[in-house]
Amino acid sequence: MKIYQQSLQLKARTRGFHIITSEIVYAMPQITEIKTGMLQVFIQHTSASLTINENADPTVRKDFEMFFNQNVPEDDPGYLHNDEGSDDMPAHLKAAMLGSSVMVPIRNGRLGLGTWQGVYLCEHRNYGGSRSLIITIWGE
Amino acid sequence: MKIYQQSLQLKARTRGFHIITSEIVYAMPQITEIKTGMLQVFIQHTSASLTINENADPTVRKDFEMFFNQNVPEDDPGYLHNDEGSDDMPAHLKAAMLGSSVMVPIRNGRLGLGTWQGVYLCEHRNYGGSRSLIITIWGE
Amino acid sequence: MKIYQQSLQLKARTRGFHIITSEIVYAMPQITEIKTGMLQVFIQHTSASLTINENADPTVRKDFEMFFNQNVPEDDPGYLHNDEGSDDMPAHLKAAMLGSSVMVPIRNGRLGLGTWQGVYLCEHRNYGGSRSLIITIWGE
Predict the structure, then answer these.
(1) Which of A60, B74, C10, C133 could pair covalently with B86 via S-S, beta carbons 3.0-4.6 A apart?
(2) pLDDT tens digits, residue range A25-40?
(3) Which of C33, C50, C54 to mutate to test the interface with A (most CBs of A within 10 A)?
């Protein structure tokens, strides 16, 4: 069994949901060496997150941003942690709801994503800046 | 270290939460060969999801359906993505909140689930049809 | 490739969010043997969960408790499963939203967490008691 690990520094994105599948595949060309295996992508931040969802219609990503803003309001007077601005604590909560990593099986040298699946970077801050990922694959 | 991977086509389920632990174990008999390892189950869809929760009282699964319907409403006028019906965009959001994969350690040839834990298929569409899973295990 | 697995029995915690990163590292000293690998931590319960979030300001964990209590109310008359008290069904729902496992890459014998990331035990019951984890690492 082989294992490979790679850092990936993503360019700064606007607040919202962005498809990054091809950047991940490009950063880890050894995926093609693995017949049966697994890929994990980990984000080293607590105010941005990763998830897997619809890769075709851009309105899905807009609706994600709308829904999570509604569901995790910025102006809750109950927040104690608000030194870094009104988007700070909601970003931590959204990141926990969506998760800090995704895992996708590798089959015959390719990601085993369904037809409509893509990996999303979920940027929850107004100015989150560049984000650091660690990509790991293993298998044989 | 060994690794095994298997597709599993689930029959169509009604909208709601369904325990599929025994189907997973049945589809991957090689679990018994692994003394120390890991199982991952991945769903290749963006309107159904997987999670781990209570395996005994069926009212828990009914309450899951009730809660997620309340928390992710179908009639939000803010949705832009609604071509496939009112259950479409909520299904994507619920899938992101619950996740597209579960991971369970393998110990002495058996899944290391707690006494009350089972794997749920979370069907978020009214007519989601058959769902495709990829099961991967590795260990020694 | 090596693989190690270890049980960890956590002492009872108060309801809320608690950082347990150092307990995990202490329970699995073999992390230092792995140059490139992966750690998974699994919780064998359905009313407590694991997530990764901010490790510095304790008010973040207080805001997590406040937000999830608001978002998953205890007094919803729609719950069918309420034999074990008003904190029971909300605990199952919170656990599903946050997840039963976390995964962190291992790099050069250390966890590849970002500067501000820590592993949280999320205790959703008023008196959850001791909680059982299974820690698994693999790599080379």
Answers:
(1) B74
(2) 999 999 999 999 999 9
(3) C54
SS3 state of residue B23: helix
Any B CB within 8 A of C100 CB: yes
Q: At what angle do helices B88-98 and C88-98 cross, to 10 degrees?
A: 90
Q: Following DSSP, what letter does each residue of A66-133 receive, concatenated?
A: HHHHHHS-S--TT-S--TT-TTHHHHHHHHHHH-SEEEEEEETTEE---TTEEEEEEE-STT---EEE
**Contact yes or no for C40 and B112 at CB 8 A:** no
Our CA-based measurement puts residue B127 at a distance from the nearest CA of chain C, in whole angstroms, of 23
**Structure confidence at residue C75 (pLDDT):** 87
ipTM above 0.95, yes or no: yes
- The confidence score (pLDDT) of residue B83 equals 85
Among candidate residues A138, A107, B71, B99, the one with its CA nearest the CA of residue C34: A138
- To the nearest whole Å, the CA of A44 is away from the closest chain C CA by 4
**B48-54: strand order across its sheet:** B16-19, B117-123, B48-54
pLDDT, tens digit, 9 for 90 and up, residues A45-91: 999 999 999 999 999 999 999 999 999 999 899 999 988 999 999 99
Residue of C nearest to B139 (CA): C3
Cα nearest neighbour of C72 on chain A = A71
Q: How far apart, in whole angstroms, are the C-alpha atoms of residue C13 and residue A123?
A: 32
Chain A interface includes B114 (CB < 8 A): no
CB proximity list for C83: less than 8 A, separation 6 or greater:
none
Flag residues of chain B having pLDDT under 70: none
Neighbours of A60 (CB within 10 A): 23
> Which amino acid would we find at residue B61?
R
A101 in contact with C, Cβ within 8 Å? yes
Q: Which residues pair with B131 in a beta bridge?
A: B10
> How many CB atoms lie under 10 A from the CB of residue C75?
7
Report percent pLDDT > 70 for chain C: 100
pTM above 0.95, yes or no: yes
User: What DSSP line would sit under A8-60, residue for residue?
Assistant: EEEPP--SEEEE-HHHHHHH-GGGGG-SEEEEEEEE--SSEEEEEEE-S-HHH
- pLDDT tens figures, C58-90: 999 999 999 999 999 998 999 999 889 999 999
Q: Nearest CB to C60: which of A5, A42, A92? A: A92
**pLDDT tens digits, one per residue of C108-125:** 999 999 999 999 999 999
